[in-house]
Design a protein that fits this description.
By secondary structure, this protein is an alpha/beta fold. It contains 9 helices and 16 strands. The strands form 4 sheets. It has an 8-stranded mixed beta sheet with strand order 1-10-9-8-11-12-16-13, with helices on both faces. The longest helix has 17 residues.
Length: 343
């Protein structure tokens, strides 16, 4: 079953030429009714508001009229009724991803950046992804492939697809011409939707990517990149061993990234006490030409999984928190509301 975004106009976007990339117009120019603005006070505390004519942002220290922000250039400083100042900026992609409505855990910006770069997501690329979640990675992939590219996203749950669609259309100001989203199991649906060897890149964010070996090998072009995002070391190990045993891919590489901010104040320059540590592992491999055998690694230890291991791959066993249907419906409503605010 396939669901495609339907065209919609955006009240936010000014008149543009046909050459204007999707979503670019609403990222520049003065603040407009319906768009999100990030307000940062003197203490560095942030709040994100959606501008409404006649609206107001209230705190215990006075209120700020939205009309005082509408029409100002990005990067302005505004003052509320009590004299407190705010720095007004458009939220960056990283800000939007971490605050948008969600039903599933999002792919963090640090990992999305790694995926776009290390999977070589280029303008015009044909990409398929599975495990859409709330659409965070889809947004980065769409920015990578551009209007002339192609991204086909597969999601098993309609609720997640609705949330992702709302978030994607919010940040781009409407449907993206390169995006198609389908409901169903990736390994079954992708071989029906995509011609053999027609896909440049495959991106999987799912519990058991090793189950998709045949499907990926079928649709991925020779030399194409397959990148996986998994949460645990046991998932990472089994995926790597399955790829090696399959024989149609190069030797997989795996890594994780960690981000630690720094405190900068005069001579008090030191690492922050908190950091974004482990969020997931990335594992990348490439499709070999048909009939070509992979190079055999020397001194590689053999690894076997017991029947107990093979039956242990459940969301609960790898630490995924169950998401209630009620929470998903609420997140989907919030995502749709964000899309409608900007329509």
């Amino acid at each position: 079953m396939t669901e495609s975004s339907t065209p919609a106009s955006s009240a936010l976007a000014p008149e543009t030429t046909g050459a204007e990339p999707t979503g670019a117009a609403i990222r520049r120019g003065p603040f407009r009714v319906g768009e999100r603005v990030q307000l940062t006070d003197e203490r560095g505390r942030m709040n994100t508001i959606t501008l409404e004519a006649g609206g107001a942002f209230h705190t215990h220290k006075g209120f700020l009229n939205h009309d005082a922000v509408i029409g100002l250039p990005d990067g302005s400083v505004v003052t509320n009724t009590a004299g407190h100042q705010y720095q007004a900026l458009r939220p960056l992609l990283s800000d939007f991803v971490l605050s948008m409505p969600r039903g599933a855990a999002v792919v963090y910006p640090k990992d999305a950046g790694q995926i776009v770069t290390m999977a070589d997501i280029f303008p015009g690329a044909r990409v398929v992804e599975a495990g859409v979640g709330s659409g965070a990675l889809s947004i980065s992939l769409l920015r990578g492939v551009g209007d002339g590219g192609y991204l086909h996203s597969f999601e098993r749950r309609k609720e997640f697809a609705d949330i992702a669609r709302g978030n994607v259309e919010t940040i781009f100001g409407g449907p993206h011409p390169a995006w198609r989203i389908s409901l169903g199991d990736f390994q079954e649906e992708v071989v029906k939707a995509e011609e053999p060897g027609s896909v440049d890149r495959v991106v999987l964010d799912m519990l058991a990517p090793w189950e998709c070996l045949d499907a990926v090998a079928t649709v991925l072009a020779p030399g194409g990149v397959w990148i996986n995002y998994v949460a645990t070391a046991t998932q990472l190990s089994r995926t790597a061993e399955a790829i090696r045993a399959d024989g149609r891919f190069t030797e997989p590489d795996a890594w994780e990234s960690m981000v630690r901010g720094w405190h900068l104040e005069g001579l008090a320059v030191r690492p922050e006490h908190r950091m974004v540590g482990h969020t997931g592992f990335l594992l990348v491999t490439r499709r070999l030409a048909e009939g070509v055998a992979p190079l055999i690694r020397k001194k590689r230890a053999k690894t076997e999984f017991s029947e107990e291991d093979l039956n242990a791959w459940t969301p609960e066993s790898v630490g995924e928190r169950p998401v209630s249907d009620r929470k998903l419906r609420r997140a989907a409503r919030d995502a749709r509301a964000g899309r409608q605010d900007e329509a």
